């Protein structure tokens, strides 16, 4: 029976140290961590590793439920996967565990709260952007991909997969650039 800690923050700039310290104090023998959004399970390889490794009687420990995920369905699916392996999930703040009968109900409610919080954050962000636009202060998000390079490579005979590999981005980003520029008449 082992205790596995999972720590997560959403951005590269955020620090995992407080979560690591708390998980160590809780007696976690192994702590996996990552800097990736909790909005979905995509790209959360460390979480997947823990879930694959869990054995009967093991425990997955997180400091707060939103570290496990921001979407109620994802959180409940993670808990379900743990239960299928007869492993447990424990959240430290507020303390709740699936070891007890009430734990599942409390986890469901906390998962719904985490999802609502995520929606509130997005709404506040949208409101802030709209206000900044009205005041002429909004300059838009920073471009994450060199659009000219995409078109140079496209015109040079590269396909979307090759362009994505070369530029270190996803194919979807390449398709988006090619589609936006074609629709707006900005294609070279």
UniProtKB/TrEMBL annotation:
Q: Lineage of this protein's species? A: Bacteria, Pseudomonadati, Pseudomonadota, Alphaproteobacteria, Hyphomicrobiales
| GO process terms (BP) | DNA integration
Spell out the catalytic residues: 10
The Gene Ontology terms for molecular function here are: DNA binding; DNA strand exchange activity
Q: What is this protein called?
A: DNA invertase Pin-like site-specific DNA recombinase
Note the InterPro entries from the entry: Homeodomain-like_sf, Recombinase_CS, Resolv_N, Resolvase-like_N_sf, Resolvase_HTH_dom, SSR_resolvase
Annotated Resolvase/invertase-type recombinase catalytic domain ranges read 2-136
Matching entries from PANTHER family are given as: DNA-INVERTASE FROM LAMBDOID PROPHAGE, RESOLVASE HOMOLOG YNEB
Pfam families of this UniProt entry?
HTH_7, Resolvase
Q: Which family does it belong to?
A: Belongs to the site-specific recombinase resolvase family.
Q: Report which superkingdom the organism of origin falls in.
A: Bacteria
Q: Per the UniProt entry, what species is this protein from, by scientific name?
A: Maritalea mobilis
Keyword annotations from UniProtKB, A to Z: DNA integration, DNA recombination, DNA-binding
